[in-house]
Write a structure and sequence with these properties.
alpha+beta; 2 domains; 3-stranded antiparallel β-sheet; 8 helices; 7 strands
């Protein structure tokens, strides 16, 4: 199956909230494996991400393209390397201490999401409401019992967690300043066009979903300007023939 055959959904199936920021310095262990449709085994090395097909006593590098597993999931191979999936990341994830610094700080994530990483939407109504929730959360945290930790979960924390997936709190759509631009946003502009004139191209939806994943990584990172796992994927995608420039 060729690289052009994979769908937008296949590229990011199961990946939401599963990637770790590179700044965290995750430690990996154990080769990930899955069963291909023909019964052979797909193995991915955690260090090199090299994809190998193991079959009937033999083994060979897996060819570039899209490979569907027996469980219905899809693995993308580019240049002999597998694009990490949620299952791979879960198998390779380090100890809990390596989780992103903002993982459970939902109100701060919400402010970043709706106000913009550079305050591009700082005057919008969703941003004002998100900041109100953040202030409520901090007031509740100050009243929390001693020993609750630096960022205890409060009723306002739960409200922010729900708001992160609410249509009332959309992500800031304003173009970021240069210092807050990202590799995946650059990829979206490359394949979809700055004005969206190439939104119907096969590569546009995958690029937008990569941007969504990168944004989620940045929401959870102590430094949202730090290079992320999906940012690296978007940098590599710039040199992939599938992500052709909008014309």
């Amino acid at each position: 199956m060729g690289a052009h055959a994979w769908s937008a959904r296949a590229l990011v199936t199961g990946c939401l909230a599963a990637m770790l920021a590179l700044a965290v310095g995750a430690a990996y262990a154990g080769t990930w494996s899955g069963t291909l449709h023909d019964g052979s085994t797909l193995q991915v090395d955690p260090e090199t991400r090299r994809a190998t097909r193991v079959y009937g006593g033999g083994a060979a590098p897996l060819w570039d393209g899209t490979h569907r597993l027996q469980d219905g999931s899809v693995v993308i191979v580019r240049g002999g390397q597998a694009v990490p999936s949620a299952a791979m990341i879960d198998a390779w994830r380090a100890e809990p201490g390596a989780e992103p610094a903002m993982r459970d700080r939902y109100c701060e994530q919400l402010v970043r999401k709706v106000c913009g990483f550079g305050e591009e939407c700082g005057q919008s109504e969703p941003c004002v409401l998100a900041r109100q929730l953040l202030r409520m959360e901090r007031d509740e945290q100050r009243r929390a019992p001693l020993g609750s930790g630096p960022y205890p979960q409060t009723p306002a924390s739960g409200d922010c967690l729900g708001a992160l997936s609410s249509e009332r709190f959309p992500a800031c759509a304003a173009a970021p300043a240069a210092r807050n631009a990202s590799a995946c946003r650059a990829l979206v502009e490359r394949v979809c066009g700055e004005d969206g004139r190439c939104n119907a191209s096969p590569a546009c939806d995958p690029a937008r979903q990569l941007l969504q994943l990168e944004t989620e990584e940045r929401l959870e990172s102590a430094d949202p300007s730090a290079r992320t796992t999906m940012g690296v994927e978007c940098e590599q995608a710039m040199h992939n023939a599938f992500f052709t420039p909008c014309e």
